[in-house]
Amino acid sequence: SSDQSITPLVILEGHSMNVTAVGWQWEAKWLWSASEDGTLRVWDIRVSGRASGVREYKAKHAINDACLDPEQCLLTSVDDRGVLRTWDLAGKECVSELVPDEIKSAPLPVPLQT
């Protein structure tokens, strides 16, 4: 019947603003999320449907989108200032940052989306 309630498999809490992107590791052992709060989070969901072992990567501005590379060891994010960052999931750090010339010469945002 249509009045049955749906029970979520897992509830992920931690972002303080809108979530803009979500993706799964290919074996569904973990997932990642990006948010307007300027963070990327990696959630380990293998433990009884609860998120554990959350890792957080902090960008400087709201993240518009993100994607996981085919080897599943890098996340790439784009933000509302036009900055593209690549995050090493094993090293837990930003390994590259591409900043548009417009930001370097003037503080006007140049948002990127994929």
Please, could you describe this protein's structure?
With 114 residues, the chain is mostly beta strands. The protein is 4% helix and 46% strand. The radius of gyration is 16 Å and the shape is globular. The model has no long low-confidence stretch (mean pLDDT 83).
TL;DR?
The chain has one helix and eight strands. It has one helix at 101-105, and strands at residues 19-24, 30-35, 39-47, 50-58, 63-68, 74-79, 84-88, 93-98.
List the helices and strands and how they pair.
Layout: E1 19-24, E2 30-35, E3 39-47, E4 50-58, E5 63-68, E6 74-79, E7 84-88, E8 93-98, H1 101-105
Distance between the termini: 39 Å
**Helix/strand structural class:** mainly beta
The largest β sheet comes out as: 4 strands, antiparallel
Helix content: under 10%
Q: Characterize the quaternary organization of these chains.
A: single chain
Pattern of helices and strands: EEEEEEEEH
Describe this protein with a few key phrases:
mainly beta, 4-stranded antiparallel β-sheet, 4% helix
